[in-house]
C-alpha cells in the first residue's frame, strides 16, 4: 500500500496587504477580536516575512477567524446591515480603503485632526451615497485649510469674513503673484453657496466631483504652505 503524504503549498500573493485589510476590523463593532488577531499577524509578517511553518499557522488562524466571523454574523444578524458601496466618478476600491490612498503620508499628517475627520466623513458619505452631507463635510475641510492659508499669509485670523471677501483680500495680498491654487476655492465657493440653500440637493456626481477638487486643493495647499 502506498503512503499518501499531503502538504500545504503557500503562494505569496500579497499577504501583508490582505492581513492589513483584515486588521481594520479592530475598528468594527463585534469584530474587534478578529481585527486584533490580524493586526498582530501583520506586525509579525512585516518583521519576519512568512516562512512555511508560519504560513501553516496563518492558514489555521484564518480558519478560526472565518468561523468566528460566521458566528458573530449569525449572532448579531438582527443588528447588522449590509451596504453596497457604489460611486459614479471616483474609484470605489481606492475610496473604500481610506483617503490615505488619495493623499501622501506627509499630506495626511499636515492636515489637522478636524480636517482629517471631515475628509473621512465625506469619504464614507460618498461610498454609501449620501451626497449632500458628503459635500458639506468636504467643504468644512476646505474652509479649515483656507483659514490656515489666510493666517499663514496675513498673520491674522479670518474672523467672520466670508469666502468671497477672504479671496479678494488674498488677491490683494498676492497681487500679480496670486497663486492658481486659490482659484480652486472660487469654484468651491459656488458649491458652498449652493449648500447654504436647504432646497438644493446634491447629486452623487456633485459630491464626488467636489471631493476630488478638495483633495486637489489639499495637495496644492500643502505644497505652498509646508
What features would you highlight for this structure?
226 residues; mainly alpha; Four Helix Bundle (Hemerythrin (Met), subunit A); 10 helices; 0% strand; elongated; disordered N terminus
Description of the molecule:
With 226 residues, the chain is an all-alpha fold. The protein has two domains: 15-76, no CATH class; 92-225, Up-down Bundle (Four Helix Bundle (Hemerythrin (Met), subunit A)), CATH 1.20.120. Helices cover 66% and strands 0% of the residues. Helix 6 (113-127) packs antiparallel against helix 7 (131-154) and helix 9 runs antiparallel to helix 10. It is elongated and about 65 Å long. Residues 1-13 have low confidence and may be disordered.
Q: Summed up, what is this model?
A:
With 226 residues, this protein is an all-alpha fold. The chain is built from 10 helices and no strands.
Itemize the secondary structure elements and their pairings.
Layout: H1 15-23, H2 32-48, H3 52-76, H4 92-97, H5 105-110, H6 113-127, H7 131-154, H8 163-174, H9 183-195, H10 204-225
The tally of strands reads 0
How big is the Rg?
23 Å
According to CATH, the fold-level topology of the largest domain is Four Helix Bundle (Hemerythrin (Met), subunit A)
Question: Rough shape?
Answer: elongated
